[in-house]
Amino acid sequence: MKPRAKEKRPMNEAIVIGGGFAGCEAAWQLSKRGIKVKLYEMKPKRFSPAHKSENLCELVCSNSFKAARIDSAAGLLKAEMELLGSISVELAKKTAVPAGGALAVDRDKFSAEITRKIESEPLIEIIRQEVSAVPRDKTVIVASGPLSSESLSGDIESLCGKPLSFFDAAAPIITAESVDMENAFVQSRYEKGGDDYINCPMNKEEYELFYNELISAESVILHDFEKSGVYEGCMPIEIMAKRGENTIRFGPMKPVGLRDPKTGHRPWAVLQLRKENNGGTLYNLVGFQTNLKFGEQKRVFSLIPALKNAEFVRYGVMHRNSFLRSPGLLTPAFNMKEYPNIFFSGQITGVEGYMESAASGILAGINAARFILGEEPLILPETSMLGALSRYISDETVKDFQPMGAAMGLLPPPETKIRDKKLRYAYLSERALKSVKESVTV
User: Fold this and answer.
1) Are the beta carbons of 347 and 355 closer than 8 angstroms?
2) At what angle do helices 87-94 and 21-32 cross, to 10 degrees?
3) Does pTM surpass 0.90?
4) Rounded to whole angstroms, how far apart are CA atoms 349 and 324?
């Protein structure tokens, strides 16, 4: 009688493809569990259309990681990430710039700090080269982002099926000194968080002129693959404006919670500017992601009185983002059902946002390490924000799957109805953090 062959265990080594938020968090979690990591990043040998820096964790859109308070969806997610040992939250706080109630960072300092941290970890080897195919026989975390190279995207398609594309757009950045402060004022909504925003007000006549020029301005001609639709969470300002004259007045240009000291009244519409760096020399146009041609951006946005002499250091850009049809493909542990040794993390899974991407990387890293070590995966409770997000991307009952960021609506309601929204959110946050703490200590 032949002896039974020994079951093959995976080596204590993992591959991480991509050095963005998800990839860096995943690599860090693996290394902290004694797993040797080969972290592949194609920069600087090759850059995607949205990336410019050689550093890891480059921010290509906003420099804000959204609300900091724990009784908000974004703040709760970051608190959960801290419990799980997040490096991006840790270093975001270290490189933070004033942003009212939000956590925003100096993008260059943040990226440099992450890069130094990853480079200093002896179990992580950063390999600066492009990966064109996902190894099927190794423990792999694909964190290549929504702008994966054509060759890697093609291989992912053969592995997982056709990815769905959506649009993503970045807002322009201007110099602080070019803002006409005679036509602007410094204030946070409802006086929360200090004077962290520059507000550029418009009266009805000024807004109507701006609006009409915005909806008739010339946009960049899109490629065929970019014409399938617009993702709601990153909609260009000109597309949003075409839905109706007041759409952006009730959206990114809403004047609520603000009072112009010059008039003593609430403006008709307001563009907010948020700091891009600690020195306060650069500001971005909040909510003004756009696909307008560069000349049109300068012409139209300069119609806002405070921006009549605006100096643009970066114009808004638009690029293609792709994500998987994750339901039915991935588990809540972020690995594939068909290939349990292959994990995905980041925006390619259908989570939307910097911190959401980083959080998925944390969970993928923890579970890849557990897979290698022969342990059960960590499936966070649905009462936690990350647990709810991991279930959303793996929920086969979702019919029209679209990217999702952290939202209180993802969490199960309180066991006993709480009418007051503030109290309800406080309860949901307390319950979520408790459930994560219990999961981590098990």
Assistant:
1) no
2) 120
3) no
4) 6
